[in-house]
């Protein structure tokens, strides 16, 4: 398999609320909700970097589309890592997320491995880690 992951989809309960969180609160670029004319089709896409998109889609519609039973939410099944260029940027993104309505689960702090990170949950409980890793360098074009 060639690694061509182009969309990461998060299941949400309230599409409008999640749209406001990601678009208005975190400032991610989007055209808004599309596909509303189709049953189970309403979705919003956010442009990230290098052609990667984040999608939000109702959990019940994902269950329908995959023919799986909708299960209880488990926020510890995965995290989304948002790597930034400095400790200061970690603090700024964490504060932006808090103001947007995120729940801060772990405030930004120095890590045991020499970095700096914190965790927050979006309105549906998905975990995001905002992290500065001194061993990784990013160009300005990689950041949104």
TrEMBL record:
<dbReference type="InterPro" id="IPR004360">
    <property type="entry name" value="Glyas_Fos-R_dOase_dom"/>
</dbReference>
<feature type="domain" description="VOC">
    <location>
        <begin position="4"/>
        <end position="133"/>
    </location>
</feature>
<dbReference type="InterPro" id="IPR029068">
    <property type="entry name" value="Glyas_Bleomycin-R_OHBP_Dase"/>
</dbReference>
<protein>
    <submittedName>
        <fullName>VOC family protein</fullName>
    </submittedName>
</protein>
<dbReference type="Pfam" id="PF00903">
    <property type="entry name" value="Glyoxalase"/>
</dbReference>
<dbReference type="InterPro" id="IPR037523">
    <property type="entry name" value="VOC_core"/>
</dbReference>
